[in-house]
Amino acid sequence: MRSVRALGSVQVRHGRTFLRRSVAGLAMALALPWMVALGPATPPAAASFDPGGQDFWVDSSMGPIKSRVFRAADGNTQRVVYALDGLRARNDLSGWEIDTDVERVLTAWNINVVMPIGGQSSFYSDWMAPSNTNGQATAYAWETFLTRDLRYALRDRLGFNPNGNGVFGLSMGGSAALVMAAYHPDQFRYAASYSGYLNISAPGMREALRLALLDAGGFNIDSMWGPPWSELWLRNDPFVFAPQLRANGTRLWISTGNGVPTARDAVNSPLDAYNLTNAAGLETVALANTRAFQARMDSLGPSNAVFDYTPEGVHSWKYWADQVYKMLPDLSANIG
Known about the structure:
Helix 9 crosses helix 10 (270-299). The protein contains 11 helices and 9 strands. It has helices at 9-29, 95-99, 102-108, 142-158, 172-183, 205-215, 222-225, 231-235, 238-248, 270-299, 317-334, and strands at residues 2-3, 54-58, 65-70, 80-84, 112-116, 165-170, 188-194, 251-256, 305-309. It has a 9-stranded mixed sheet, sandwiched between helices. The chain has a single domain, classed as 3-Layer(aba) Sandwich (Rossmann fold). By secondary structure, the protein is an alpha/beta fold. The two termini are 24 Å apart.
């Protein structure tokens, strides 16, 4: 584990050297066909419903949206964390509930957990228009939902503290967590990204995201932030808004693996082998993005961030759950 607090001019120069090399490697990686799957690359699992949660419906401009809420073991309403899903978010349960048990551990630490449901390919963003390639009727408005509709419904109906919350996410949800913290610092004082895409202006990334959104639901990315040269792309790029996170003093936990499979990723069939290849490639791209983001943060001076690079691991739920458990003492100390 490395903290940004331990900075020096030599480290910054090394970070910039890595950035130049990683961008070149990223451009090559993005040419590979598996890049259409920018999200968890493991096969879909059967839904694993946790009866300890409650369905919490809130009206929005998108219609009624369900979240799953898991109450802190001690009954407090002050300590709240939001868990954001990946690109292929489903409309029944969050991947966090389907593929992990993190909510049971978080609630045992007396933290209330909120899992928004849905938002496939949304990047949890307010879109400019409905997608015109898949018949979407209403434009996504996820940032507004999370920071206004859901936030105050939780306050008014459950008594949840609307300020000083935490937010974490994987892949798509990782970059979105940093967006929420950058532009809504009163609500989110803590943000974590696991295997996130934190340098979306890097060569090849915008083209890769376009393909990914088409693959995951047939969405037109131009409906999200407009053409690739628009200001909204910059607004939603963690590499670009890094100074805002530093100025806010946001506590950050940023992690990624290195794309190397382990014994936990045993290959038992050709389908498993295909998905494992995807998961390894996606994590390599996430690593390049995360290294670039760290170099950007380093160049700004000391900041309130932890960067954790595991020596192995691919784009998969088991590794993201590990990060939640590893991060948990730090999260507990910094919310509520």
